[in-house]
Amino acid sequence: MSTENTPPAETDFHLDEFLPYRLAVAAARVSRDFARLYEAEYGLSIPEWRVIAHLGAAEGAVSVREIHQKVDMDKSRVSRAAARLETAGYVTKSENAADRRLVSLRLTDEGRRLHAAIAARAQVYEAELLSRLPQEEARMLRACLDAVAAAV
Prior knowledge:
The protein has helices at 19-42, 46-57, 64-71, 75-87, 109-130, 135-151; strands spanning 62-63, 91-95, 103-107. It is 63% helix and 8% strand. Helix 2 (46-57) crosses helix 4, helix 2 crosses helix 5 and helix 3 packs across helix 4 (75-87). Strand 2 and strand 3 form a beta hairpin. The chain starts with 18 loop residues before the first helix and ends with a helix. By secondary structure, the chain is mostly helical. It has a single domain, classed as Orthogonal Bundle (Arc Repressor Mutant, subunit A). The chain has a three-stranded antiparallel sheet with strand order 1-3-2.
């Protein structure tokens, strides 16, 4: 008896209960909510803020490849964001003499000031968001996120 054309059995799968989906939806909502603030206040997109945030946490120049891996955005989005940030005067680019495809980024003084301003706003946003949860749940949320990230 062939099962090639047999439809799959019914399952109790519900997308809105599937952990990866729930994490993605929650992350996207929080990211968009915070993005509305820094877009309105500083005129930055999500990719631009992620590049600024990563560069602000680094000491010295950082490769586009490293940013792409760290902030989980494809290289083309990182490169476009970097180009806009360079035009705005927030970052400088330098190419590797041996391999021109390897581009490093560094915050300018203006970029460091921007990073400091948005990072301060991010801390306030995070505190406001977590204050909506009971303190123990906020602590558990952080611990659970750390555990999930370590498990994959």
